[in-house]
Write a structure and sequence with these properties.
Blueprint: E1 5-10, E2 15-20, E3 28-33, E4 41-45, E5 51-55, H1 61-71, E6 79-84, E7 95-96, H2 99-107, H3 116-129, E8 135-139, H4 149-152, H5 158-164, H6 173-187, E9 194-200, E10 204-210, E11 213-217, H7 240-248, H8 252-261, H9 264-269, H10 275-283, H11 287-307, E12 316-320, H12 321-326, H13 328-336, H14 347-352, E13 359-360, E14 369-372, H15 377-389
Parallel strand pairs: 1-6, 6-8, 9-12, 12-14
Antiparallel strand pairs: 1-2, 2-3, 3-4, 4-5, 7-8, 9-10, 10-11, 13-14
Helix pairs in contact: 1-3, 2-3, 6-15, 10-11, 11-13
Bound molecules: adenosine-5'-diphosphate.
Length: about 400
């Protein structure tokens, strides 16, 4: 593997990792999960696709990372690219980690209390073990720093923005950046393209991207804003909080848990946050599961229509993420909710493009293009890491 870059995505109880070289010949990747518990383990896949599972009962982040680096020792990474969720207003691109950057990543836990501390833990663990290895951070929010003020400001008193940085930030930046770039290359229109990229997974967000720049996106100060997701509500009336508190006596923390962990597909269906399970139940006649899919598809379509306001030209729609890449029926239902855009779909191509396949699903006479593009956040993070280091 030439110039291998290690990409790390540290969550509160998991570490996703991938080692990518300049040559596009396969990658080594894996997941350490259940960290801190007896069931902690690493699922590792080598360059030939061979999988092993290693039990690491009670492993901490540091211990798991040590094990991951041992598993990768034959490759000697040139650098580590860390996915960091929140970069606040300060970071509009990937940066090399120094003490100031690390302090800032930690300080931004005020905006991402679950994610940034875990991301910082990963950076510190690598710094401790390999002080000479350069660390680069790639922020989920950075891609959206090109949004104009009319898109990122909330209509609330301006001191909250000026003194407390309360504004819309947006997330899933690496994914929206990667798939919009890829769509532009594949479509090859020869002019500046405007895409609405729909990253539909456990977490879902959509972005209006024109000429490679994010102009608006559905997630806001936190990833709760926008479309309904696996367990997140997406947009609700902001007065819902006070209503739940005053009329039902819930505390703010309880309301936060309800909206982040018990809502979305899970809340409406009452069965699962997983689209496959809901799809199955719906096909067996479960009305709540059917409604969950209807609401999801309608809200995604509504956002596609509204995000088109941000684009000087509307070239097309890009589907990605676990649902966007795999569910032809969800794609079909979303597009059926957009009758005014002159979209025509090739049903065979829509059925065919699943499980990692990439391509267009629109017909020649369709007014908008529609692409299915498997996301590759690891590739994007490795690419930005190399750019920062001039590799
Ligand atoms: P994350 O946001 O955690 O990265 P993913 O992008 O992997 O999640 O997306 C997970 C979602 O994708 C789940 O809701 C899962 O049910 C859905 N999904 C995966 N495969 C299919 C499929 N064949 N049909 C419908 N949904 C699918």
């Amino acid at each position: 593997m030439k110039n291998p870059i290690l990409v790390l995505n540290c969550g509160s109880s998991s570490i996703k990792y991938a080692l990518l070289g300049d040559d596009s010949e396969g990658r080594v990747q894996g997941l350490a999960e259940n960290l801190g518990l007896d069931t902690a383990r690493i699922k590792h896949q080598d360059i030939n696709g061979e999988k092993v599972e290693i039990s690491l009962a009670g492993a901490t982040h540091q211990w798991a990372l040590q094990k991951i680096l041992n598993l990768l020792s034959e490759y000697k990474p040139r650098a580590v690219g860390h996915r960091v969720v929140h970069g606040g207003r300060q970071f509009s691109e990937a940066v090399l980690v120094d003490d100031n950057v690390l302090t800032e990543v930690k300080r931004l836990k005020i905006l991402a209390p679950l994610h940034n501390p875990a991301n910082a833990l990963g950076i510190e663990a690598v710094k401790n073990m390999y002080p000479d290895l350069p660390n680069v951070v790639v922020f989920d929010t950075a891609f959206h720093q090109t949004m104009p003020e009319k898109a990122y400001r909330y209509a609330i008193p301006k001191e909250f923005y000026e003194e407390h940085r309360i504004r819309r930030y947006g997330f899933h930046g690496a994914s929206h950046n990667y798939v919009s770039n890829r769509a532009t290359n594949l479509a090859n229109t020869g002019s500046q393209d405007g895409w609405v990229t729909a990253h539909l997974g456990n977490g879902s967000s959509l972005t209006a991207v024109f000429d490679g720049k994010s102009l608006d996106t559905t997630m806001g100060l936190t990833p709760l804003e926008g479309v309904p997701m696996g367990t997140r509500s997406g947009d609700v009336d902001p007065s819902l909080h006070i209503h739940l508190h005053r009329t039902l006596g819930y505390s703010l923390d309880e309301i936060d848990t309800i909206l982040n962990k018990r809502s979305g597909l899970l809340g409406i269906s009452g069965i699962s946050s997983d689209m496959r399970t809901i799809d199955q139940a719906s096909s067996e006649g479960n009305a709540d599961a059917k409604l969950a899919i209807e609401i999801f598809c309608y809200k995604v379509a509504r956002y596609i229509a509204s995000l088109s306001c941000a684009l000087p030209t509307f070239t097309g729609i890009v589907f990605t993420g676990g649902i966007g890449e795999n569910s032809s029926s969800v794609r079909e239902k979303i597009l059926a909710n957009l009758p005014h855009f002159g979209i025509e779909i090739d049903d065979n191509e829509n059925q065919r493009l699943v499980r990692g396949a990439e391509g267009a699903i629109h017909t020649k006479s369709s007014r908008l293009q529609v692409w299915v593009i498997p996301t590759d956040e690891e590739f994007q993070i490795a690419k930005e890491t190399k750019q920062v280091l001039g590799l």
